[in-house]
Recover the amino acids of this structure.
């Protein structure tokens, strides 16, 4: 079984809406600059699917918040990330609904306003991602305490990467976890232990 929990599911669901919403903004700008209908269609569908994916990412993030052990510093970053995610979803959700109902009747000024709002939404989306990255990379949010403690012990063993150094390769008679020697998986680039 995949054994996905809410934090992992949230991480898995984030990439699709980010990519789609940024694609929608890019093709919005291209459609406005060139007047090509095909660019407008790509933008429309990327926006619709991206907004739905954004809703799934926000819902999974709300669930992940309940599962992650955290202190005050993580909580503050998490609250900012959550607020920005709601703003992002609001901007792109409104744009998606607007375009569903007005796509075929928009004039040039209305369409230009939509493009400006989508560019602003992309800025908020970028900030949302930055705060999400801070949670993971600056505060290790979502990483269980026992896993984090094991990683800290492993990192404290003066592990370096030097050219020309070979890894120890486990033999058929070696049992993982019975030796104090560090063993990396097959195919790992050479480095010093």
């Amino acid at each position: 079984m995949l054994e996905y929990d809410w934090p992992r599911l949230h991480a898995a669901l984030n990439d699709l809406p980010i990519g789609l919403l940024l694609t929608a903004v890019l093709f919005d700008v291209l459609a406005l600059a060139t007047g090509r209908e095909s660019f407008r269609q790509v933008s429309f569908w990327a926006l619709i699917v991206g907004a739905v994916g954004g809703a799934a990412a926000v819902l999974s993030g709300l669930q992940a918040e309940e599962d992650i052990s955290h202190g005050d510093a993580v909580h503050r970053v998490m609250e900012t990330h959550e607020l920005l995610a709601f703003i992002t979803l609001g901007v792109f959700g409104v744009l998606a609904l607007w375009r569903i109902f007005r796509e075929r009747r928009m004039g040039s000024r209305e369409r230009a306003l939509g493009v400006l709002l989508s560019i602003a939404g992309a800025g908020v989306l970028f900030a949302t991602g930055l705060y999400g990255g801070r949670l993971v990379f600056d505060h290790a949010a979502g990483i269980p305490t026992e896993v984090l403690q094991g990683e800290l012990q492993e990192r404290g063993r003066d592990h370096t990467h030097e050219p020309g150094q070979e890894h120890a390769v486990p033999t058929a008679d070696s049992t993982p976890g019975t030796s104090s020697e560090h063993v990396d998986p097959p195919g790992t680039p050479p480095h010093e232990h």
In short: Residues 37-67 form the longest helix (31 residues). The radius of gyration is 23 Å.
